[in-house]
Fold each of these.
Amino acid sequence: MTKRRAILLLATFLCVFLLLLRLVGYKGKPVYLASAKVAEESTNRAPAPQPPFMSAVAVPPPQAADAAPPPDKTGGFDGNRAYAQVAKQVSFGPRPSGSPAIARLQDYLQSELKSYGCTVETDAFSADTPVGRLPMKNFLVKIPGEKPGVILLGTHYDTKILDNFVGADDAASSTAVMLELARLLCPQHGKYAVWIAFFDGEEAMKAWSDSDSRYGSRQMAARLSTSGDIKKIRAFLLADIVGGRNAQFPRESSSTPVLIDLVWNTAAKLGYSAIFLNTSASAEDDHDSFMKRGVPAVDVIGDFVNNGYWHTPQDSLDKISPQTLAIVGHVILESTKQLQTK
Ligand SMILES: [Zn+2]
């Protein structure tokens, strides 16, 4: 390593570390990302209640090999900010549907999205599950376009019910990517509208089945069918488990072929073929809720079967790479741009 490179790396980590300290509410500072609007609000309002352990949490900075590329190399997507958003979500603790921790995350997502100037629709509903009737919330960011038609992006933000499971990769990583995309896209206007969905209740409460899973995306797809809006969706790009240090993305074989090609060709053009593989694997996920209603969709999902920590308490922050988050963010951003030209 050259001296210049070492200094650059050191500076990068100092930045990430400072951002993390700010995000975890170090010394009781406001817990939001830096933003003039939120800073203003926070002086006028009592600070949001924080879990007691948060002020004491020291988040380890990511490893050197996982450094995010500078945002100007990834279409403006900031991998360090996305990493800090994963750390922030993990700091709330386990976040299953209906829990006090997910309620705090819901407040955080809303205030964060508003601070970017996003228009956010909230759908609070309840779902009958094998563990009882649970309150859930979907959020839908709506960025207007010039012509009829919608490009939908999405993630789930709940975590599986499991002791000591903080879901850094499943599903804080994809939620962080969507937050960062919202920050970039909310001030823009394209040919088509871009909507960004944050689903509650993707995880099964007991055993995965069609009735015990994907509560949030089934709810949103049903509502958009009733309103007729579902017909406007030209493509749905879903992300899930997208932050792993050694993540690899096989083509999700149940997705719509033309969209699989679009995303994986985009990744190849950007130089990410070592991560976006040409192998195939299939996954049941939130895209199914829309595909069943005729919406073309693609799931960008890391190879969770082989990552070694899926649905275990080892799915923690140390598994997450700012670089992987930046690559996935860049691919989704560029794929969205491609869809805007069609
Ligand atoms: Zn999961």
Amino acid sequence: MNCAERLVEIFGSQAEAARALSLDRALISHWVKSGYVPARWAMEVERLTDGRILAVEVLDEAGTKKPVRVKSRPDDFVSAVPGSEALNKFAPSKRIQSFHPPQRTLMGPGPTEIHPRVLTTMSQPAIGYLDPVFVEMMEELKSLLRYAYQTRNALTFPISGPGSVGMEFCFVNMVAPGDKVVVCQNGVFGGRMLENVIRTGGVPVLVEDTWGEPVDPQKLEDALKKNPDAKIVAFVHAETSTGAQSDAKTLVEIAHRHDALTIVDAVTSLAGTPVLVDEWGIDAIYSGSQKCLSCTPGLSPVSFSERVVDHVKARKDKIRSWFMDMNLLLGYWGATTRTYHHTAPTNSLFALHEALLLIREEGLENAWARAHRHHVALKAGLEAMGMKMLVAEKYQLPQMNAVLCAEGVNEAEVRKRLLSEFGIEIGAGLGPLAGKIWRFGLMGYSCRPDNVMLCLSALGSVLSDMGLPVHVGDAESAAHGAYAQMHVKDAQRKKKAA
Ligand SMILES: Cc1ncc(COP(=O)(O)O)c(C=O)c1O
């Protein structure tokens, strides 16, 4: 018997031997097949078998099976290969090493920090996108997404691409050239919806609201009365550029009263604040993996009602994108027998599965409550430093807090110092709000008390250092006070319920 076979006999099976050596079973099987244990395992094998297999036996056997080769070529052999000089012409001028990102506290508008469980899952070995094990995982992923969206919609799945691809997917499938679409804009992302309508050949009707305010339902009602032929209403539920939340339920009701379908942007709202697709009757919705889902960027979960599927199937013209044609993608995500559509980003999908599982374990209501709790504490701290929220309290998104920058301060310098001195990222204002607001995200795994306290402490330190009348410690104390009050209320509520 060779050393590999003896090792298996001592441990009882290949699996047990693999476990003892902390190796993959396939490797032990490979040793048995090749008839020897590689020399570098000699000492470990002697130790684990209590000397029943000696290191010297392993070394002797490995030496005869796989003799050590003496180098026969110089180390600079590669450059001697004819033609390699020509390849080196394109080599980068600077010596490039492996990339290791620094540890950051991400408290901006996204992406968020990623839960360690999600990162571990993402680094598992690759498998094929039609592997039966993967297909099984896809089904679980769809059902976890239905939970996150609170829907029974069969067509609920993640699109390969960021939130912008989810947005475009909705417009390209649902808007035929000449279709009238009402777009409600109260920030940057409503503007992107408008751009999508124009590019798909639709006829846009714009309903505008001031940035920092929610979409006004009355304005939508008026626009639909004036445009009874409008087929679709599109709006952003949680406007990331301002931190304002619109009343999705009411806006969908109005659209349906006027016989229009709805497209809802839930990129920042999903899992941070209630999104009840079935209860509110939303027709088409998209989100992003990198916000309150705390996953790696690059996936866009979408959900479509039967009405939308019928609407798209009834189109007489060809969808103007091959990649995004819903009818074609259904062959991969919708059907029971799956066929190749595109190479799905398998490891990112493992990660999304784990991120959604974490939400399922926590419970959606608890995730919403967590965002609210830390929002109240963060706000108390910011206000203690004299800052004011951009959005009126009733419409504030807990997961996206926009505050007016302290007066007389170089806002970009503050963000720069937060990043360089404390490793904290916060967001700047966009469009008309550039230079006027800071945006503090409390999304997904970033939404934690340690992040709130670190952020307040760092901001207080930077502002006071820059000469602002901020008393270091006031913000932390206000946040602690807010947490304490919430704990008392929670305890009272629990006592009453018992
Ligand atoms: C409300 C909203 N919609 C759409 C997008 C676009 O998503 P992505 O950047 O993933 O393409 C974002 C991104 O921040 C967003 O906040």
